[in-house]
Amino acid sequence: MKYMADRKESLGEFELIQRYFSKQSVSSVSLAQGDDCAILDIPSDQSLVFSIDTIVEGRHFPSSLKPEHVATRALGSALSDLAAMGAKPDHFTLALTLPAIDEVWIKSFSESLYEFASRFNISLVGGDTTKGPLAVTLQVHGLVPKNEALLRSGAEAGDGIYLSAPTGDAKAGLELLLKGWTEGSDDEENLVNRFLSPTPRVELAQQLRAKANACIDISDGLISDIEHMARASGLMASINLESIPLSLPLSRLFPEQALGFALQGGDDYELAFALPRSAGSLAEKFGLNQIGTFEAAEGESTIKLLERGKVVAHQQFEGFQHFGK
Amino acid sequence: MKYMADRKESLGEFELIQRYFSKQSVSSVSLAQGDDCAILDIPSDQSLVFSIDTIVEGRHFPSSLKPEHVATRALGSALSDLAAMGAKPDHFTLALTLPAIDEVWIKSFSESLYEFASRFNISLVGGDTTKGPLAVTLQVHGLVPKNEALLRSGAEAGDGIYLSAPTGDAKAGLELLLKGWTEGSDDEENLVNRFLSPTPRVELAQQLRAKANACIDISDGLISDIEHMARASGLMASINLESIPLSLPLSRLFPEQALGFALQGGDDYELAFALPRSAGSLAEKFGLNQIGTFEAAEGESTIKLLERGKVVAHQQFEGFQHFGK
Q1: Residues of B238-256 as b/e, b for ≥16 C-beta within 10 angstroms?
Q2: What is the ipTM metric for this complex?
Q3: Which stretch of DSSP H or E encloses residue A162?
């Protein structure tokens, strides 16, 4: 892409950037670098699973966010999409748009990105850097044995609805950050870190593949995402509010708002999934929280909230929609 | 990604966008849509080849560019990367960042994108839309028989250097656009269209796969990109200036600048490639232009420009570098 690219400026820029993004990649697949494209050989018993996402400064993260956390939020949330499919992370591409070449920023960003990537055994295999308002687009690729990917649509009536961990913490952490939080108690730090550095449930996802009937990751909020799964499966999700797990830091610091954050907070990147009764031992092994049950749909309703067995809300929810996925 | 996403606004926005990007995809691979990821089964005799690129308003295209041309420039240049590898386009993802929901803009953009995609048999299989300064990131995926991808690095001493078509037109077209061109002679329109709607040489690339030793697409300028190929192959490119083809519109409208545009213009998305002497019939069949020869490297030099057999320039060029590819 040449238009407006000042050749001299570009040379310095891109040599600099290249230095920070040229670490050796270790991938289960063969790859050619330095060419116009990456090349990938996929084992014949595996399917490739992929997802693309952009985060924009001021829209998906506050402008004050440190580069290391821009990296962990971008890659953490992207890997969560792979986890939702039961896929094993393999490699990813990065399209990075930067307003200016700030070597300190790029160094922190790239170090954090590589460190986070190495924790999940995923390699950076290609990319593009452009000048413009700060935005990070990642496309993550994972592998899954053929015909074994977890979908949103496989839940069956009678399946338990489970959560990988309590939700709502990230929303609470964001609230703290937006109020100018920089340091504080351990509880506060726990919550803030849940926003800054989400933990994609990659390992659990591998276990779920053979057991769960359906799975989704919680990016838009627990209710909203479970409703997606219910609708895709043609069922109604019946959720018991008293079963919604709340973390101790959340309950202690936001006692009034905790349940609301847990139900509608978003940015959690936990997994919600449907387990048949026969998979009870898995739930026990991982200490998973059952929060409800999938039932046959009642008319148009796809979700029902119960408190001590009584319906407190019974409506269709409309979530935050991405096109094409 | 939930932060700052106003739920009500998002609903309207994303339903609208979904409408324009939900056409049925026809791909050689199996794909699940509506889930967190797309799923892809790749024929066991094929490699997957992919490339990610971002274009940003004001940086890679003028702000006045119509949405239909933003689409053709983004996809045309991306497909050119696949052509450079000898790959057959298969599917792509789109990460679109828009400052506001402008239905007229989105309609034109999506119609143009689908029309251009259908010409090259490539399907849109997933994406993300975000709010922010206008930018388009595409990741294109193609298939190539295993171990048959064209690389930059395979040229051999004695190979002819060929071009798929004259270069420099896109640069001339851009010059016209930057001077405010809206309509004019056929010559002018030809040049402008070469900038607005590049023609990736996808069909030629399939033919080249079995014949060419190395290939690259010209995005940064003929000299710069041939120098990349020479360096990757450990050779020196010897270019005969009098063999550089110039289009009639370019020669007529920019007689003084034509050669400079052809050598350094960029945005051409033609292919430059190395053909061994034995492949002469292919060159004849496609009417290809031989512009030089690869020779053993002389010290640090990777390129040599000749005019009537005399060296007029002999230096290392540094091109516009993308990291990681």
Answers
A1: bbbbeebbbbebbbebbee
A2: 0.81
A3: strand A160-163
pLDDT of residue A320: 28
From B62, B124, B152, residue closest to A324, measured CB to CB: B124
First to last CA, chain A: 28
Q: Which residues of B touch A10 (CB under 8 A)?
A: 320-321
Distance CA A154, CA A273 (A): 10
For residues B136 and B134, give the distance between their C-alpha atoms in angstroms, rounded to a whole number: 7
Q: Residue B228 gets which letter from DSSP?
A: H
Q: How far apart are CA B323 and CA A127, in angstroms?
A: 6
Closest CA to A203 of A308, A317, A307, A285: A285
pLDDT (tens digit, 9 = 90+) per residue, A9-22? 444 555 666 677 77
pTM given for the model:
0.86
Q: Is the pLDDT of residue A6 over 70?
A: no
C-beta of residue A41 within 8 angstroms of C-beta of residue A90: no
Question: Is B35–A85 a contact, with Cβ atoms under 8 angstroms apart?
Answer: yes
Instruction: Supply the pLDDT for residue B12.
Output: 55
Measured in angstroms, the CA of B134 and the nearest CA of chain A are apart by 9
- Cβ–Cβ contact B99 with A under 8 A: no
Q: What is the mean pLDDT of chain A?
A: 87
Q: Say yes or no for a CB contact (<8 Å) between B142 and A320.
A: no
Contact A58, B71 (CB under 8 A): no
Kindly give the parts of chain B with pLDDT less than 70: 1-18, 23-34, 314-325
Residue with token string 């056409």: B23
Contacts of B250 (CB under 8 A, 6+ apart): B166, B168, B169, B172, B191, B258, B261, B262
